[in-house]
Structure formats: structure tokens, C-alpha cells
Amino acid sequence: MIIFFLAILLFLFLLTSVRIANQYAMAVIFRLCKYARTAGPGLYLLIPLIEWQVTIDMRTMTTSVEQQEAITRDNVPIKINAVIWRKTVDPKRAVIEVVDVGNSVVQVAITSLRNVIGQHTLDDVLKEQETISRALQISIDTVTEPWGVKVERVQMKNVEIPESMQRAMAQEAEALREKRARQIKAQAEVEAAALLRQAAETIMQSPAGLELRRMQMITEVGAEQNTMTIIMMPSEFVEMARALGQRAGGGSG
Known about the structure:
By secondary structure, the chain is an alpha+beta fold.
């Protein structure tokens, strides 16, 4: 009878003592309010009424930082939000060293976000987001490392700037596009002038080429079905006709 009673007590003890932690979780166990050990994943024992536990998820977790207002180094107010990827690497410190590790990481991120943005100009914030995200990660991770939390990545989701600044940036972009268009047009004119000069030098070296060009122009004008046809006479014919006209005028006198 006593053995049966002891067996029942042992069974109840095991039933209330056995705990199971998932593959991605670990249990921080306290004995009489003092840290005893870290157990899991899998099966482990917990002494009833003497020990109690706090289960920590060891997977990478995503924490959103709500939109915050910050001022850049060139005194431009912007609104920005971010996302943090964090992972608990030391369950003991994550439980003992900080009350609410998730909220603490968010508060650190808000402070770091404002500080880092204040060290960069608006152009840097818009163009160098990867560099700024890396600086944010290092800044946050430095603070959270004693809490047993590793910040794996920080990414800025959205950056809002004032409407007046948006209009100014649009005008600047339009001016830059117009400048590039004028530069391209001027470069095209320079190249065209160089080609015309080469063509003139080629024609000067071969007078017959000029006559062929004239005949080509006549063919092109006729192909366009114009009502008026322009015939370009060689300069030698014009000089010859002028000389004959002068002689005829002198003979009649």
C-alpha cells in the first residue's frame, strides 16, 4: 500500500515537473527567486512550488518603430519610420537585465534614429539610406548587447519631407534636366560642325564630289513631289555665262 502511494506521488511529481520547450524557445528557470539555470529546447524538469520559469523565443523578431519626427543637420524637419530585426542570444540577460526587452529596444531605436538623422543632411538621408541604416544598427546594437539581444538589421521604411521642400527639390530636378538637355544639344552641334568641316575638306579635295552632291540634292527635291524644282548649276557655268554676257554687251557698244 505504501509503495502504491509513493508511486502515485512520484507520478504526480513527474506530471507536474516535466516541461517541454519548442525548438525555437528556451526557459530561464528561477529557484526561490534566484536564477538557477537555462533549460531547453526539449524536455526538462521543473520542481513544483520551488522553481518557476520564463520562456524566451529565440527566433528573429521584427519590431516596428512608429513614425518619428527628426531634424537633419541642415535643419530640415522630416518624418521617418523604421523596422528592426532583433534576436535574443542570451535568454538569461534578456530576462534579468531588462524588464520589457521589446519595448526597450523600440525606445533605444527612437533615440538613436533622431541622433543619427541629426548628423546627416537631407540629401544624405535620401541617397545614403543603406549607410544610415547600418549606422542605426551599430548604435542600437551597442545599447542592447548587455541585454542579450542582437540587432541583425535596421531598415528605414519611409521618409516624408515637407511639401515646400518637395517643390524645391522638383524645381531643382527640372533645372538639372534642362541643363543636361542643353549640354546634349550643344554637344550635338559641336559634333555636327566637326562633321561638316570634314565634309567640306573632302569636297575641296575632290571637286567632282561637289557635283555629285548637287545632283543628289536635285533628286531628293524631286522625290518629295514639291511644286517647285530648284536646279543648282555648277559655279563654272555661272562664270561662263557672266563672261559671255559681258562680251556681248561690250560688242554692241
